[in-house]
Design a protein that fits this description.
Layout (H helix, E strand, L loop, with lengths): L18 E5 L2 E5 L10 H8 L18 E7 L6 E7 L11 E4 L1 H4 L9 H8 L9 H23 L16 H7 L11 H8 L39 H10 L18 E2 L4 H8 L9 E4 L4 H4 L8 E4 L4 H4 L1 E4 L2 E5 L4 H12 L5 H10 L5 H4 L4 H10 L5 H8 L3 E6 L2 E6 H6 L11 E5 L23 E9 L11 E11 L6 E11 L7 E2 L1 H7 L6 H14 L9 H16 L39 H5 L14 E5 L18 H5 L16 E7 L5 E7 L9 E5 L13 E3 L2 E3 L6 E2 L5 E7 L2 H9 L2 E5 L10 H6 L3 E2 L13 H6 L3 E9 L11 E7 L3 E6 L4 H12 L6 E5 L14 H14 L3 E4 L2 H7 L6 E9 L5 E13 L8 H9 L6 E10 L13 H19 L3 H7 L4 H7 L12 H9 L2 H16 L3 E15 L3 E7 L5 E5 L8 H13 L7 H5 L2 E3 L2 E2 L14 H31 L4 H10 L5 E6 L6 E15 L5 E11 ...
Parallel strand pairs: 1-5, 6-8, 7-8, 18-44, 19-32, 30-31, 34-35, 38-39, 43-44
Antiparallel strand pairs: 1-2, 3-4, 3-5, 9-10, 10-13, 11-12, 11-13, 14-15, 15-16, 16-17, 19-25, 20-24, 20-26, 21-25, 22-23, 27-35, 28-33, 29-30, 29-32, 31-40, 33-34, 36-42, 37-38, 37-41, 42-43
Length: 1417
């Protein structure tokens, strides 16, 4: 990469350069052969430049970690356009004459300074682990640049300067949506949204959350870091000059097309040139890929290496837009985002309903940074060729669209319906353009024709609507089913009812080959009055038509959605069912709160006059906010300053600007090669051989490292815990699908990944038993790991006696599935051989000391020959503890064998498959209780699926039982079994065992309350512990009445007037709405944590600066921040008024196993406080050493500054480094308390749920840093929402995970968190047995997310009281609500046939009324 000033002219060699572009203003030239044509921009940036801000999070365009700003210059107009793009999908050879800006290009710490985007993200506490932050910054930066460009374009000149600190024309809604496609596993999104909204011109600053710029009530724009227009995406002058110079040859894109046998990237200039190219001998036996945006590689993860690429973007015809009176022709290479803008312009301010609604729907396709490069034609090609579940194909099919393809020497127009039914296209079929006809709202169609070609009739009205049901409201999720309906409706003169003259019903994404028209249903409905009986018949026929192919998940649910959407479309105009003139929604935009599902249904009263039908506006013209309100209440403790102050997280600015270094950001050493796991796809089999695919010689692989390469004296060990070791590689028998078998070594990570996925493994199951793949099979075959008795909690009381005292007894079971960690940074390691048989390993690990031990054992080396270094981790949640060890060990083994550096950075799919996740469980319970809801006894049979090895699974029963004991069960007994199965090993995940135990307690509460027909919240209150019962159930955690704050917390949550008023509003809402229901629930927690021994080392350097080392690892939880504050407090005893100044002179340094030994594990929520206490003790040692020096010199010269004190101490030989090892006392465990209420709204037609509001109160003791703890509470809660509501963990029949990427595994996004999100940190005061009276905050709040699940259950219970949702047996109030409560689960519990039920009931009612009338007459 050659850097040159932005004003520099093009070098004379530029004519021979294949690609010329800019990265952060610096010139980049690529010549033929410099870079493999399959190289993405992300790979190029991270391996060929110093800019590592863009991160690899998924490789699918599904997470946003890699987002950069791509700018293009139009020489004709002089305009510069900006777009956020996924650099993991964008091919670097396609960037000719473009400018790329990464987060480093916005600004950097030090020289040049940070950009306002960086400073505000940091100041609003919107960065925790920081791995996703650069991508968030660039998504926001792109929105700011686009808003500025839009304002300039509309004004035709530079717009007036925006208000100070704001951005021109950016609304709060646009700011929120800018990051709707960015995933974050740490923060819970609320602070990210607030940071984005701080740039919006229409935001009330007082509505923004906790930040470091102002205190509540003192918000002023002038206190924000100023945003200057024009500061984002400055297009380099040298590149403009080159573009202008070449504009005579080509207006925008590229140098002359590359030709010749050596060329691998081709840019044809015309359709004819394209066909000449693909018909040449060069392409006869070549593996060829045709690209525009290359976004298909995110859908279909490539295991192919292509010889040649053909870039279609230089063909003018494919990029043209032709507007006609009857419609618009859009070139196939036009991006989806451009198509949206074209349709909006053509819609004329939402006057054209069809165009506007197509644009609205397209905005729910993928995310902005994918839509900006994905082409409209490419989407349709995927739908036609690859059976891609396209929304665009469906909505364009309904709109009567057609496509143009070349045929011989002419252009052939084919209806989209016919095109989808053609044989799958290959690269010899070129899609040229898409035609979308114009449908006017007064009924005159294009050319006076209907969708079937007949002449339209006067007096008709066109109705158009689109629908989708998907896990996320704002897109970035494939729909369970999508549909679009276009109808001509007219009044029938004889019956005075409405009649369908023409109709198009399009459905897609439901498990079909492609989008289809339900022609048999159309035929049934056309020409008939729209009556309930007709529609009921249509729905039954539709259900028989929309049948997913065999093997499609949630097939019945998808079929029911088709009925629900038709119901939503046509019900408002059915004869005799609605009262007129109350509201008009018939052809209005559907704005369901969560998933793009219909609001408008039988609950709306609709004026059925045709005039009113046509007076509509599109919902896209509204400005709906994603998040409505949030409030954060904290108490600042000033007893131990600067401890207790809500300071910014250490390194937050560096994380935002991309300067924070993660393992994969470390520059690759000379001769570095890359590794990728080959893993088993069989659950139990002999591995006879592993061979690489010989067809992929160009991958430049160096071979496979297997168990045979473990050196003499070493052992096949990949992890180790107190419960024993586990193997690195499956040998000679693989124990589960997902077990590593070897490591492919190649010259790039991409090549290693492809080679690993193409590896050929020969298995044999001869003489092996059938694998154990479930808890039930493990029970049947008595396959258990033995749990040491000392790990099992005490049983309480006499269970038999307690049951005898019960008025009622019930038994049931609960099943809970797994959850994947989804840390944004996947497992990563870099191993570098050193002299004297030593090894340096950089590992993204929560336990580097254990990694050192395991690597040494595997290699047969003493531990002092292995040095493991961890600076920071891009999210852990337990997954970077034991499950990080095999990666570091395999990496070290490969480096040891090859004697050269080896780097491993797992792709997302491999990471998801090999690292396991949360423990699946089966819980059987028997509970006795009195008629007032008071428990007398509980017995639990607990079965835990550990997978193939022990890991730390033997502690899970203890954690589960401790969390379950949050209520007073009377007598309590249990039996716990840890099952050994042939699935990937499960490990500790945030709140391991505790989240399940706390939830099961709530499930029992819900069951009991339903049996008593009592309010579940009253049953909860009745069974909360007293101080005495708490001591009985948690005898090792003594608590006095002052410290036991749970009752006070629960009273604050549920006894307030606000809570009671909400209950009344919900009851009223449920009475007046048939198709929307709300539920409100309250959940308390009692969470036990255990402090662990931790070292801390404080060193004062010659200049007075301070370096601190701790055993704890910075995972994003703010450990370094709290440690830094504690060090300033500890040393501040020497200068009480200068502790804040000391804070700025302290640096916490990376963990190094040869520098700070006995580092232990960073798990269990308490490592931050333990590290702080170790540092405080070390500071006390230094204070004791320095205090006499200070007193001595103060007597001689008065005041002594810090620098003078340190200088004098050095002169007299004072040891300025102290290391302490903090060991908690016998009472190292304590209890955490909290409670949450959540309100959820469900849609009975689709099963969609909206979290209307959540209120959390969490006892944080005296918080060491309220901003950090608040972030932990919110982030944990939202991660818990994922577990309870969103994250479906799916495996195949061999136990292999198949929900293995962002396309199939859906963590929460900004549009799925509570719309009102309120958190209060309770300061419970002094407690001598805790570190400065603080409490843990990392894991306990996750348990509170069960309140969302319980509120969903309440909403479903309200739904099941409706006649159309009844029919569930004698006890409709009790039912099992699965975890997660995804849309199909909710819908099924509300009735998959509830539409048919209500119409059937309507017909029956009408028949009964008619019969009565007849008898009366």
């Amino acid at each position: 990469m050659a850097a040159s000033p932005s004003t520099a002219p093009a070098p004379s060699s530029s004519a021979s350069a294949a690609v010329v572009f800019a990265v952060n203003g610096e010139r980049v030239e690529l010549r033929e052969g410099d870079v493999d044509p399959g190289t993405t921009l992300l790979e190029f940036l991270r391996t060929r430049t110093r800019f590592t801000g863009p991160k690899f999070g998924c490789g699918e365009g599904g997470c946003g970690a890699c987002v950069v700003l791509l700018s293009a210059y139009d020489a004709a107009s002089g305009a510069v356009s900006h777009a956020a793009v996924s650099s993991c999908l964008t091919l670097v050879h396609g960037l000719h004459h473009r400018a790329v800006t990464t987060t480093e290009g916005l600004g950097r710490a030090g020289a040049g300074g940070l950009h306002a985007v960086h400073e505000r993200l940091a100041g609003f506490h919107a960065s925790q682990c920081g791995f996703c932050t650069p991508g968030v910054c660039m998504s926001l930066a792109a929105a700011l640049a686009a808003a500025e460009a839009k304002a300039k374009a509309q004004a035709g000149r530079r717009p007036d300067d925006p208000p100070e600190g704001f951005a021109a024309r950016l609304t709060a809604a646009e700011a929120e949506r800018a990051v709707a496609g960015n995933l974050c596993r740490c923060t819970g999104y609320r602070p990210i949204a607030d940071a984005c909204k701080s740039f919006a011109a229409d935001v009330d600053l007082e509505d923004l959350g906790l930040n470091s710029f102002w205190r509540k009530g003192d918000a002023q724009a002038s206190k924000l870091p100023r945003y200057d227009e024009g500061s984002i995406g400055v297009f380099p002058e040298f590149l403009k000059a080159e573009i202008r110079a070449s504009s005579g040859i080509d207006d925008l894109y590229t140098p002359p097309a590359l030709v010749g046998s050596a060329s691998t990237w081709h840019r044809p200039r015309s359709v004819e040139e394209y066909y000449k190219l693909v018909g040449s001998e060069l392409f006869g036996e070549s593996r060829t890929k045709v690209v525009v945006g290359n976004t298909a590689s995110g859908v279909y993860r490539e295991t192919e290496v292509y010889d040649r690429y053909i870039d279609l973007r230089c063909i003018p015809e494919l990029n043209s837009v032709s507007k006609e009176a009857n419609g618009v022709h859009i070139g196939a290479a036009v991006s989806i985002s451009q198509a949206i803008e074209i349709l909006r312009v053509e819609a004329g301010g939402c006057n054209d309903v069809v165009f506007c609604k197509i644009a609205d729907h397209m905005e729910k396709v993928a995310s902005p940074f994918v839509r900006n490069t994905a082409s409209l034609g490419g989407n349709l090609i995927m739908a036609q060729r690859d059976q891609f579940a396209s929304d665009i194909a469906t909505i364009l099919l309904a709109a009567g669209s057609s496509i143009c393809i070349p045929a011989s020497s002419r252009r052939l127009t084919v209806t989209l319906e016919d095109f989808l039914q053609m044989p799958p296209c290959d690269h010899k079929t070129l899609l040229l353009s898409i035609y979308i006809p114009r449908w006017t709202p007064i009924g005159s169609l294009s050319g006076g024709k209907t969708m079937d070609g007949t002449v339209s009739k006067i007096g008709t009205s066109v109705l158009f609507e689109t629908y989708r049901a998907a896990p996320r409201p704002l897109g970035n999720a494939v729909a369970y089913l999508n549909s679009a309906f276009l109808a001509q409706v007219s009044s029938d003169a004889t019956s005075s009812s409405l009649m369908l003259r023409e109709l198009c019903l399009a459905f897609g994404a439901y498990g079909s080959q492609h989008a289809i028209r339900a022609r048999n249903v159309e035929k049934l409905l056309v020409g008939k009055p729209i009556t309930v009986s007709v529609l009921l018949e249509a729905c039954r026929l539709l259900k028989e038509t929309i049948v997913p192919k065999e093997g499609t998940r949630h097939a019945a649910y998808r079929s029911s959605l088709a009925v629900a959407f038709l119901f939503s479309f046509l019900y408002p105009v059915t004869e005799g069912t609605l009262k007129p003139l109350k509201a008009v929604h018939l052809n209005g935009y559907v704005t369901c709160g969560t998933n793009g599902n219909p609001n408008c249904g039988p609950d709306a009263h609709v004026d059925v006059s045709l005039k009113k039908i046509n007076d509509v506006n599109s919902g896209s013209c509204t400005n709906d906010r994603i998040l409505e309100y949030s409030n954060q209440i904290i108490e600042i403790n000033k007893d131990y300053l600067p401890v207790g102050i809500p300071t910014k997280k250490v390194g937050a600015e560096l994380q935002a600007s991309g300067e924070a270094v993660f393992v994969d950001d470390i520059p690759a050493p000379k001769d570095c090669v890359y590794g990728a796991f080959i893993y088993s796809t069989k659950p139990l089999a002999h591995v006879k051989s592993i061979e690489l695919d010989l067809l992929l010689k160009q991958l430049k692989t160096l071979g496979v490292v297997t168990v045979k390469d473990i050196p003499e004296g070493g052992s096949n060990v990949g992890a180790n815990t107190i419960f024993g070791p586990e193997p690195l590689f499956g040998d000679p028998v693989t124990q589960c699908a997902g077990e590593p078998l070897g490591v492919v070594i190649a010259e790039t990570q991409r090549f290693a990944n492809i080679a690993a996925k193409r590896a050929v493994i020969d298995y044999s199951t001869e003489n092996l038993d059938a694998p154990i793949l479930s808890i039930e099979e493990a029970i049947k075959r008595c396959s258990y790991f033995e749990t040491p008795p000392f790990l099992l909690p005490q049983k309480i009381g006499d269970f038999s006696k307690g049951m005898a005292e019960a008025d009622q007894k019930i038994s049931s079971e609960v099943k809970l599935n797994s959850q994947y960690y989804f840390y944004m940074e996947t497992q990563a390691a870099l191993a570098i051989p050193d002299e004297d048989n030593c090894m340096v390993v950089y590992s993204s690990s929560q336990c580097p000391e254990t990694a050192q031990n395991v690597i040494a054992k595997c290699l047969g080396l003493p531990c002092h020959n292995v040095r493991v270094i961890t600076r920071r981790v891009g999210g852990g949640f337990g997954g970077k503890a034991v499950r990080s060890l095999p990666v570091a060990t395999a990496c070290a083994l490969a480096a040891f064998k090859l004697r050269r550096p080896v780097r491993m950075y797992l792709d997302r799919k491999t990471d998801m498959i090999v690292t396991g996740g949360r423990h699946p469980m089966k819980i059987c319970y028997s509970v006795g209780f009195r008629s007032d809801g008071k428990f007398t006894a509980l017995h639990i049979d607990l079965f835990i699926n550990a997978g193939m090895t022990k890991d730390v699974s033997l502690i899970i029963p203890h954690n589960f039982i401790e969390a379950l004991k949050k209520y007073n069960w009377g007598a309590f007994s249990y039996e716990a079994k840890v099952c050994k199965t042939n699935i990937a090993t499960k490990s500790a995940m945030r709140g391991p065992g505790e989240v399940q135990g706390s939830y099961v307690a709530e499930a029992i509460i819900e069951h009991v309350s339903s049996m008593l027909s009592a309010d579940a919240n009253l049953v909860r209150h009745r069974n909360l512990h007293t101080v005495e019962s708490l001591a009985l159930f948690h005898s090792e955690c003594t608590e006095d009445a002052m410290g036991y704050t749970l009752h006070s917390i629960c009273d604050q949550v549920t006894a307030s007037e606000t809570y009671q008023r909400r209950l009344e509003i919900i009851q009223s809402f449920n009475k007046s709405n048939k198709w929307k229901k709300r539920g409100l629930s309250f959940v308390p927690i009692v969470h036990k944590v255990l402090s662990r021994p931790t070292p801390g080392k404080v060193s004062i350097l010659n200049d007075g600066s301070i370096a601190v080392e701790v055993g704890g690892i910075e995972l994003g939880q703010g450990l370094w921040t709290k440690v830094k504050q504690m060090a300033a407090f500890g040393l501040g005893q020497l200068c009480p008024d200068r502790s804040q100044e000391l804070l700025e002179r302290i640096r916490v340094v990376q963990a190094d196993t040869l520098s700070n030994v006995q580092g232990g594990w960073t798990t269990g929520s308490t490592t931050s406080e333990s590290s702080c206490e170790a540092v405080r003790h070390a500071c006390n040692v230094l204070v004791d050493r320095l205090k006499p020096v200070k007193e001595q010199f103060q007597e001689k010269q008065g005041n002594v500054s810090w620098d003078e004190l340190i200088s004098k101490a050095i002169m007299i030989g004072v040891d300025l480094s102290a290391r302490e090892y903090y060991v908690p006392g016998p009472s190292g465990s304590y209890l955490n308390y909290g409670a949450a209420t959540s309100e959820v709204e469900i849609d009975l037609l689709t099963g969609a749920s909206t979290i209307v509001r959540s209120d959390l109160i969490y006892d944080c003791g005296q918080s060491l840093n309220p901003a950090v703890d608040l972030g932990q509470v919110e982030g944990a809660f939202v991660q818990g929402i994922g577990y309870f509501m969103n994250e479906e963990y799916v495996t195949n029949s061999d136990g292999l995970l198949i929900s293995d990427g962002t396309w199939t595994y859906k963590i929460p996004t900004v549009d799925t968190i509570p719309k009102q999100f309120n958190v209060k940190l309770l300061n419970s005061g002094f407690h001598k047995k805790r570190v400065l009276s603080s409490k843990a905050s990392g894991e306990p709040p996750l348990l509170l997310a069960a309140s969302v699940h319980c509120a969903t259950r309440e909403a479903i219970r309200a739904a099941r009281n409706e006649p159309h949702c009844s029919g569930f047996g004698p006890s409709p109030s009790h039912f099992d609500l699965e975890v997660p409560a995804i849309m199909p689960v909710v819908k099924e519990l509300c009735g998959l046939d509830n539409v048919e039920s209500i119409w059937g009931a309507t017909i029956a009612s009408c028949s009964f009324s008619a019969l009565c009338d007849k008898r009366c007459n």
